[in-house]
Amino acid sequence: MSDQTERGTSRSEPKESRPPEEEPRGSRFAPGAWMASTVVQTAVILVGLAVVLFAVGQAVGADLLGMVGEALATQTGQWLAVAVLALILVIAALRAMSVARPRW
Fold first, then answer.
1. Global pTM?
2. Residues ≥6 apart with Cβ < 8 Å to 54
């Protein structure tokens, strides 16, 4: 038996338990990937929110989705929508920073 086999580091060792090999920065950091992920997650959240508002509105007999639409038609509602979009952009930027930062 070789020394490697006795120490438990045989060639048949699974790849997951080995330390990660150094990769070039470009292969780990894909700006389009996190942006696409953020856009898809935001779209899913907005569609889910609309469905929940519709379903709860139907359950209680009120047009909650229409109320939200009317609220967004006001100037204050439009500014709130702009604030939510800005918040989404800040979250996307924070995600980009966490992807770009090396994890030790």
1. 0.54
2. 64, 65
In this predicted model, what pLDDT tens digit does every residue of 46-102 receive, in sequence order? 899 899 999 999 999 999 989 988 999 999 999 999 998 899 888 877 877 776 556
Number of domains in the chain: 1
Q: How far apart are CA 89 and CA 7, in angstroms?
A: 50
13 within a domain of the structure (yes/no): no
In a domain, 8, yes or no: no
Q: Find, among 45, 41, 44, 63, the residue nearest to 53 by Cα.
A: 63
* Residue-range definition of the domain harbouring residue 77: 24-100
Q: How does DSSP classify residue 21? A: P
